[in-house]
Write a structure and sequence with these properties.
This protein is mainly alpha-helical. Strands 1-2 form a two-stranded parallel sheet. The longest helix has 18 residues.
Length: 70
């Protein structure tokens, strides 16, 4: 699967984090639709993003898994 973290806890408006999470969701979609890549993920491509300070945004943007903690 794919995993990422937001760029900074100082991102009060979550704008940078939203950009990163949106980009990762786009990559997940692109890879899922590419048969040459998708064949390596027998259970589908999963996305892990978000931590305690941004988990709500991660859920909104399609995260399959969260890491609660910092």
């Amino acid at each position: 699967g794919l995993m990422c973290m937001g760029p900074s806890e100082d991102d009060d408006q979550m704008s940078q984090t939203q950009k990163v999470f949106s980009m990762m969701m786009s990559i997940k979609d692109e890879w899922s639709n590419n048969k040459e890549i998708a064949k390596f993920f027998s259970k589908g491509i999963k996305l892990s993003m978000g931590m305690s300070n941004d988990y709500r945004l991660a859920i909104q943007l399609g995260s399959d898994f969260l890491r609660i903690g910092s």
